[in-house]
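Forum: Protein Structure Q&A
Topic: Joint prediction for protein chains with partners

I've read a bunch of threads here and the consensus seems to be that you should model interacting components together rather than docking separate models afterwards. I'd like to see that in practice. Below is the full input, 244 residues plus whatever partners are listed. Could one of the regulars post the assembled result?
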Amino acid sequence: MFQHINYEESAVSTQISAHKLDAEGALAGTVVVANEQTGGRGRLGRSWYSPPDTGIWMSMILRPEVELREAPQITLVTAIAVVRGIEKATDIEVDIKWPNDLLLCGKKIAGILTEMQADPDRVNSVIVGIGINVNQTSFPEDVKGVATSLSAMTGKIYHRAAIIAEILNEFQWLYDTYLTKGFSFLKPLWEARAVTIGKKIIARTPKESIEGIAEGIDEEGVLLLRDNNNKLHRIYSADIDLSK
Ligand code: BTN
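Posted by a regular:
Agreed with the consensus. Here's the joint model:
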């Protein structure tokens, strides 16, 4: 599947590079990897700290035959692939925080950014960005308290290409399974690594903040949150705080 890997020494954002290649008709499965991003972006318009030589900054071009409402499931499938790939390459077990964060000892080690081009109800292409803090030993002031890297946790230096190879290997079969059998088939794998489930959380959406217990995800990957008045909310997209 991943026949074309485009390497850039320095990109503004591999998402931007991938969107451009997508518009030029690049094959599905094309991957962009950069050693550094000067304008790395995160979810909700945030920036993503992407210094050279230390992290994994990559984006994949996908053209899944799925409906628009199903596309967020690709973030969950990617999270499973990243967790499994990191573990295969480094023996480190990372947790998933719905929908797109990966945590190590409660701190953010990686994030996934899924952006799509779609008609009203059909997805044309999906660009999945993966950012992993691998060998950083320091972080800027604003993310210091919440971010970490594999190296900061263990004191070892990791081979980024080996981690990328394992992630792409994992992603390939997980994505095939997802397309042929549906997300519900992979849900147990996601649940096995999810820290959000059963916890008290606050879900912040542009409209409201809801506090309650995350009961799980449904067959479609939607978060089920029971609020303090026992009302069940289906959350499609939100920023999640794990409350203490
Ligand atoms: C998040 O947690 O907010 C998502 C972060 C995604 C970062 C990756 S790094 C590679 C790709 N290029 C970007 O500009 N962003 C994603």
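Residues 71 and 185 are 16 Å apart (CA to CA).
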